Amino acid sequence: MEKKYPIQKITKPIQRFIQHEKSGGLVLGVCVLLALILANSPISNHYYAFLEHKLGFTLDGNSYLEYSILHWINDGLMAIFFFVVGLELKREIVAGELSNPRKALLPIIAAAGGMIVPALIYFSLNPMGEVSQGWGIPMATDIAFALGVLYLLGNRIPISLKIFLTALAIVDDIGAVLVIAFFYTSDISFVSLLLGFSFLAVMYLGNKMGIRNIIFYAFLGILGVWTCFLLSGVHATIAAVLAAFMIPADVRIKEAYLVSKIKNSLDQFTQIDPNDKIPTLTNEQLHLLENIKTDLHKATPPLQRLEHAMHPLVSFLIIPIFALANAGVRVIDIDFDQIFSTNVALGVGLGLLLGKVIGVFGFTWISVKMKIATFPEGMNLKNLFGLGLLASIGFTMSLFITSLAFQTPEFMTQAKIGIFTASIIGGFSGYWVLSQGQKPSSK
Fold it and tell me: Are both 395 and 263 inside the same structural domain?
């Protein structure tokens, strides 16, 4: 029987909250609201001044890596977010929804439509000048928010819809990473870039040689790959995704052998006289438990260990900090003439709300009609329309691309207003459409 401690009354609810699928989206929503409150409060000047404060280090009178706190959040902390995205992408490609070409085809087509149509809508409204750089903003879907809304429906939604939306968002992330890599980079230093790829090559060789130590990959990935890409002009988040793909995804012990080894250790453990009256273990018991721990460690791929360990960090620290730093829009001083002085807000809003729905729904429906792919079990046109609306939620990734696309604060504010408006309407509309007439699933 497990012994209960008073501290568990505090830790257990926290653990349950963290493990809940929709909790990350809830925390993100709270932080977006908090950022809006701070930006429109009497202390808004302090809020913005704090984000513009520069941090770096000085050596022999020269400053190095001196960037604003906002820049460190967007290029530093968000690199951790993109590292976890990279881990998820590799896992899905190796053994997940994207590993089976037939299963992956429909989400890939849906994601392609959900990226192409929004970009075209935005670009048709903003064809020239700096504002044209924002075409990538409505291409992105916020997986945390979208899945959070979907999970609010509980078992009224078939599991196949959740899998479809997850796969769609993963492909969407691949598209966003490629867009950032090829279209949102500054002047490139090929020397730094070559050095960064050299560190990636060392990580790849370490993987093939069987090195499983996480510290080895962390050292090369952070001090090597990330720093070189940061100095190269290619956005540092790309380094995080590439580094994630170098993490080993195989196991040293297969499942059948693991089960037999653990059974053997447990048999030996049960043969030892119980020591219930003494709160410590014998040396023999301790040795057997260490063997089990070692075997379990060998049977878990480093990629999944990292992903599992870092997911709460990203969901409950990195993304909330990013939202606090980037979602602050001062709306009390804005008039409609300023919002619509360009078509940025309109392009982003329509790109997300109409473009995502038309792209996801239209491309998927055409593919099924042409018998290129088939609907997953439990999906129909109404469900597909609802998923298209949820795909228009673009908070995190859209805000991130906004920070890369524009230098003019006015354009950034307009883009954020478009993002918030479309995401809120899309989220509520998607929830309403999917909840109508749905019966609880027995699964």
Answer: no
pLDDT in tens, 381-423: 999 999 999 999 888 888 889 988 998 888 998 999 999 999 9
Q: What single-letter DSSP state applies at residue 340? A: T
Q: Length of the chain, please?
A: 443
Evaluate whether 51 touches 58 at the Cβ level (below 8 Å): no
Q: Report d(CA 381, CA 387) in Å as an integer.
A: 10
pLDDT digit string, tens, across residues 335-384:
677 777 889 999 999 999 999 999 999 999 999 999 888 888 778 899 99
* C-alpha distance from residue 26 to each of 30, 319, 328, 329 (Å): 6, 11, 17, 20
**Are 120 and 259 found together in one domain?**
no
- Domain boundary, last residue among 298, 313, 330: 298
CA gap 361, 364 in Å, rounded = 5
% of the chain surpassing 90 pLDDT: 30
What does pTM read for this prediction?
Answer: 0.76
352 shares its domain with 292: no
Q: Answer yes or no: do 291 and 326 share one domain.
A: no
User: What range defines the domain where residue 330 resides?
Assistant: 22-185+235-250+301-435
**How far, in Å, CA of 356 to CA of 418, rounded?**
14
Complete DSSP assignment for 38-95 = HHTSTTHHHHHHHHH-EEEEEETTEEEEEEEHHHHIIIIIHHHHHHHHHHHHHHHHHH
Supply the CATH number for residue 136's domain. Answer: 1.20.1530.10
pLDDT in tens, 146-155: 777 777 776 7
- Residue 206 in this model has a pLDDT that exceeds 60: yes
Residue 206 lies in a domain: no
Going 59 to 64 to 66 to 71, the CA torsion angle's sign is negative
Q: What is the model's pLDDT at position 233?
A: 75
